[in-house]
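assembly run, all chains below
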Amino acid sequence: MMWSALTDGTRRFLGGNGDWSGAAREAAQCVGFLEDVEDELVADETRSCYNCRYRRWTESSFICLRPGG
Amino acid sequence: MTVFVCIDDTDSLESRGTGELAGLLALEVEKRGWGRCGSITRHQLFVHPDIPYTSHNSSMCFNVSMPEEHLGALTEFAADFLAGESAEGSDPGLCIAASERMRQPDLLVEFGYRAKRAVIEMKDAFELASETGVHLSCHGGTGQGVIGALAGVGLRLGGNDGRMRGSLEIPAVDGVARVKELLEHPEVDAVRTMEGASPDLEDRVRLVDKVKTVLLGGKLVLLVTADNDPDGVVRWRSCTRQQLKAY
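ok done. output:
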């Protein structure tokens, strides 16, 4: 389980901000992945939660803001 | 004179990014013959629940070499541009700092680094802008973007933060170029390894992914890392997105 559900209905990625393979795996299964603008891509694997427009970075990880996520 | 233009918080989850807007603004400045624009750099700011932002919280800054007589027109145009082009629901901020009118630039640099690790209030940004003689303005929403815009100028002035927006187009044979050829690019001031060493001018570098520079020591530096070429002909490779994430 890679996510922790938050009280506002969003979810936090449990892999932190350096689990490159985990973030790619999650994005591969996600129907709502939306690639961010090029300036904000950080993962080498393009399809990665770390490159998704819906990720909202936190100090240690990110929260997924995908509608219905 | 050198003028630094920085914008922040112009986007929404559905809109084009702040970097694209900075690029369009730079194009308009050149089209009007006000000056020549340099590279756009992206500066990562603090991510914290108390700071509203879309998905990253970064600002975009570029420098313009221009005669002082066009500064007023540029400022007016940039303000209108931001008000008209920013996404609905965004909180755009604009900072314009002219090197010859700026006072105590060290304070701006310090502010930039503070904005990378702490929550700052808008009034602090306006007070510092007034103290240092730089233009700072809101152009919609809460105007919260002024904090990042001012911080972006400070970080750019400091010369040790940020990576370039977009990527370099470098002539290469089979994706490989010599260090001396990389240095011929107008937007590459230096080539360095991640450890800070300077490769030989004749060394070959494999260009992978999008080739970007980072701002280090006031220079646009193309970072390289050891290549695993089995023949040993290509000694280095350009850094990937993941390797540049920290900049």
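The first helix of chain A runs from residue 20 to 28.

Residues 3-64 of chain A form one domain.

not gonna interpret more than that til we talk
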